[in-house]
Amino acid sequence: MDQKIDIKQFCPFNNLEFIANQLVEGFITGLHQSPFHGFSVEFAEYRPYNTGESTKNIDWKLYGKTDKFFVKEYEEETNLRCQLVLDCSSSMYFPPAPAPTLEHPNKIYFSAYAAAALIQLFRRQRDAAGLSLFAEQLLLHTPAKSGTVHHKMMYAELEKLLQYPPAGQKQNTNIAACLHEIAERLPRRSLVIIFTDGLDFEHKEDFYLSLQHLRHNKHSVVIFHVYDRHLEMDFDFSNRPYRFIDMETAQEIKINAAELKNTYQKSMRQFRDELKTHCGQYQIDLVETDINAGFHQILINYLLKRKKLY
User: Fold this and answer.
1) Do 122 and 271 share a domain, yes or no?
2) Which phi and psi (to 5°) does residue 17 adopt?
């Protein structure tokens, strides 16, 4: 049975806003500062008057004090362009379940709902949102728009992710190549929100370079590092033999969970510490996202924290 996104779940976000923490480029007046100067809302600076231009913006009081002509410039407020980027590799369908729910989600189910909630929030703010889905390659990339038809299309694409993939369907991860492509295809400085478990350990240095690429192109980046804390971080398995299967490569290993636990936890702590360090260096917001906490709590806590900071 096809699952639909329940927009009633987004009511807790009705009084919240998502404010850009750096200059953004948009096309209609909104909540965020633009890098362009005009004669709009908030005073920015003075500049010398150029002969032949309109005199209506000359500051006559300053002329009276300096006997020189200066023009007031203002920073324009604009709407935000946001690109929501979702990892759709097979590992995002962990923990495996035939019918995940909000109470018992897998990582992709959680991410799809969180992304849909942000789309609803941006729609209310009259901000433009686009959607990118990737696994080994970029599966979908829509430009940021603010129209109703566009929002419905994005909801439809996210609803497809709520369904458990057919048996035998495997999607590996190539997050670095996909983020490089997204960085090149975004035409203007934007907010890029990434939902991923980051489980591409063999190419993690390439992953960090792709994050640098996004920041070099002046995009503001937020990463929701999505995981199941009990199983993927704490390795909370009982002391008995298990057969672990890689959801992307189908490789198997048979081992007693207790024998692997300490080594596994050490490896995951090291990965998380490296990710935190690189995000700190690149001025990227990293949101630790335990799917068991529920998308309401994760998003509300982050939006409230962001409101205080910016």
Assistant:
1) yes
2) -130, 155
Q: Are residues 70 and 106 in the same domain?
A: no
Q: Would you state the pLDDT for residue 22?
A: 54
Q: Which residues are paired to 252 by β-bridges?
A: 245
**Residue 175, in any domain of the structure:** yes
Residue 3 within a domain: no
Based on the fold, state whether residues 55 and 102 are members of the same structural domain: no
Question: How many distinct helices (H) and strands (E) make up the chain?
Answer: 7, 11
Residue 125 is classified by DSSP as T
Rounded percentage of the chain residues whose pLDDT exceeds 70: 87
46 pairs with which residues across the strands? 72
Q: Is residue 292 included in any domain, yes or no?
A: yes
Closest CA to 80 of 46, 116, 141, 34: 34
Would you state the pLDDT for residue 155? 95
User: Residue 121 carries which side chain, given as an amino acid letter?
Assistant: L
Q: 196 with 101, same domain?
A: yes
- Is the peptide bond preceding residue 95 cis, with omega within 30 degrees of 0? yes
- Asked, for residue 22, whether it belongs to a domain, the answer is no
- Is the pLDDT score of 133 beyond 50? yes
Strands (E), the chain: 32-38, 42-48, 70-78, 81-87, 128-134, 138-141, 191-196, 220-227, 241-245, 252-256, 285-290
d(CA 295, CA 292): 9
Q: Report the candidate in 178, 212, 203, 213 with the shortest Cα–Cα distance to residue 271.
A: 203
Q: Looking at residue 109, which CATH number applies to its domain?
A: 3.40.50.410
Are 213 and 294 in the same domain? yes
Amino acid at 70: F
164-197 burial, b at 16+ Cβ within 10 Å, e below that, comes to: bbeeeeebebbbbbbbbbbbeebeebbbbbbbbb
- The vertex-97 CA angle with 91 and 99, nearest 5°, equals 120
Q: Which domain holds residue 64?
A: 32-78
Q: What is the identity of the amino acid at 251?
A: Q
